[in-house]
């Protein structure tokens, strides 16, 4: 069965510092990987996704993620964060057998301080 | 603008009452999903539908019911059998039948039981 582990429930950083939000998954077949962002009391917005091809994926708002098959990881990174990046971030996985269903991690709350 | 709408944004329910949450999409997506979000729990799948007049239970379907009479609509009823319904409910949709598993989310409905 698939599962997703987001290793940090909360990540505090100072403005303009780099950040990495960690995500590990387990699956026995080829996967599709997603990062979503959620601002308070709002729905989820897609940041980026890996379906196939290049393992370095660039998304919106300056975020990028790298698919590492050997380490079963899909960590999200941004070289310099802004106050407006304060939000909750969710990693999700699916595969070709899942009929499009996503398995979500429990989320990481990113708090950017001035 | 294409997108997903959920109504109402806030909903209050007395114990023992059934309530229905609305979800409408104009993206021409075949698949629709309902998730429940609790603090620190991530998103948990309640029901999903890949096609009109068909739907399947997700991981936490007990106490909930759905219908899919139209492609663009997927209402969720929270019944009195759901013992702890206070949560944030998210609706999503995606293209079905392809390798594209990206789900697009509505703004959510926050349900509070009084």
Order of helices and strands of chain A: EEEEEEEEEEEE
Determine the mean pLDDT of chain A. 93
Low-confidence stretches of chain B: none
**How does the helix and strand content of chain A classify structurally?**
mainly beta
State the share of residues found in helices of chain A, binned by percent.
under 10%
Number of helices of chain B: 0
State Rg of chain B: 13 Å
Shape of chain B: globular
Average pLDDT over all residues of chain B: 92
Main sheet characteristics of chain B: 7 strands, mixed
CA radius of gyration of chain A is: 14 Å
Distance between the termini of chain A: 41 Å
Low-confidence stretches of chain A: none
Taken as a percent bin, the fraction of beta residues of chain A is over 45%
Indicate the overall shape of chain A: globular
Number of helices of chain A: 0
Helix content of chain B: under 10%
Instruction: Tell me the β content of chain B.
Output: over 45%
The greatest inter-chain interface is formed by: A-B, 24 and 28 residues
Topology summary:
The complex is a heterodimer of chains A (114) and B (114).
Chain A: E1 3-6, E2 10-14, E3 19-21, E4 23-26, E5 31-38, E6 44-50, E7 56-58, E8 64-68, E9 73-78, E10 87-95, E11 103-104, E12 108-113
Parallel strand pairs in A: 2-12
Antiparallel strand pairs in A: 1-4, 3-9, 5-6, 5-10, 7-8, 8-9, 10-11, 10-12
Chain B: E1 4-7, E2 10-13, E3 19-25, E4 31-38, E5 42-51, E6 54-57, E7 64-66, E8 76-78, E9 87-94, E10 104-105, E11 109-113
Parallel strand pairs in B: 2-11
Antiparallel strand pairs in B: 1-3, 3-8, 4-5, 4-9, 5-6, 7-8, 9-10, 9-11
């Amino acid at each position: 069965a698939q599962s997703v582990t987001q290793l940090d429930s909360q990540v505090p950083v100072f403005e303009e510092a780099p950040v990495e939000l960690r995500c590990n998954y387990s699956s026995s077949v080829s996967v599709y990987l997603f990062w979503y962002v959620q601002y308070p009391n709002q729905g989820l917005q897609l940041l980026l996704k890996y379906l196939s091809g290049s393992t370095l994926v660039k998304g919106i708002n300056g975020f990028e993620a790298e698919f590492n098959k050997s380490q079963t990881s899909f960590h999200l990174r941004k070289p310099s964060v802004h106050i407006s990046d304060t939000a909750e971030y969710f990693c999700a996985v699916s595969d070709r057998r899942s009929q499009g269903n996503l398995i979500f991690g429990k989320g990481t709350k990113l708090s950017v301080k001035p | 603008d294409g997108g997903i709408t959920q109504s109402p944004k806030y909903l209050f329910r007395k114990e023992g009452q059934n309530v229905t949450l609305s979800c409408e999409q104009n993206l021409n997506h075949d698949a629709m999903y309902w998730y429940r979000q609790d603090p620190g729990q991530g998103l948990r799948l309640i029901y999903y539908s890949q096609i009109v007049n068909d739907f399947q239970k997700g991981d936490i379907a007990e106490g909930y019911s759905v219908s899919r009479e139209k492609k663009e609509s997927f209402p969720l009823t929270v019944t009195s059998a759901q013992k702890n319904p206070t949560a944030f409910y998210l609706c999503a949709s995606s293209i079905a039948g392809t390798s594209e598993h990206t789900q697009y989310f509505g703004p959510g409905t926050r349900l509070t039981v009084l």
